[in-house]
Amino acid sequence: MKPDYSVRQSRTEPASAAAQRQDAGETRACRQAVARGDYKNWMPKGMIWSFLGGAIGCGIVAVVLNALLNGTLKTVLTIVFAALAVIFCGMTIWAALMHRAFSYDGKRQMSRQIIEGTAAHVKLPAGGKCLDVGCGSGALAIAVAKRNPQAQVVSIDRWGKEYASFSKQLCEDNARAEGVKNTSFRQGDATHLDFPDGTFDAVVSNYVYHNIPGDRQQYLLETLRTLKKGGTFALHDIFSQSKYGDMQAFTQRLKDMGYRKVALIDTTDGKYMTKFEATWMGLSGSALLTGIK
To answer: pTM score > 0.85 for this model?
Structure first.
């Protein structure tokens, strides 16, 4: 099912009000849609269990040390391991809340909202091609492909051990489950894309580059290198100062290079999440970089 994000704006209605209504409509549509694929969770259960195991382990050590030792050493070590147990407990709760917020089966469904919202920025011509960098479980690629059945979506990912639940096979299985045939998946390196200049009509990405150490602005340029003249881009990530440097200067750099309609759209103002959600989930600085080459 493809959500309908259309919003009619009256002649007297402020543009900001229409935008708020559209965002609300997108949220409702995303929550009502049913995913036939298994897109996993951006907060894996394995991480939750690891934090819980750390809490239990440190708690047990604290109890054992308290029973076996005496004096100052007993006090110090017991306090240290008890404090670690509390920290791991807090991390367990945080990870569990993240898992619930991201889940495609829950009420919040933030992952779906982000994926569908980003895919809505891509409109491909008949026979066109789109590149999804860091496809993970294939969610964004499939969402773009469903919106553009007359085009092809090529997706790459390294599928590293840190995200063991994601794989090329999972992506292909999800595409089949969704009835999508205009996608392909391959292993690749986001920092050195194996495509000639000007290959694609659109490029997309979601929460990828901030995970890669190095010059992240250069990684964005490497992605944009593969975009055709007149092609569009929609790249969603945590564009904070600490991760990317001065992104306002970067957007101006793109404009100076000839890119048009370049915008860095804040997605923590209710578009994809609230400021509060972005803060406690560690997603502050999330934004969507869009424009035309």
So the answer is: no
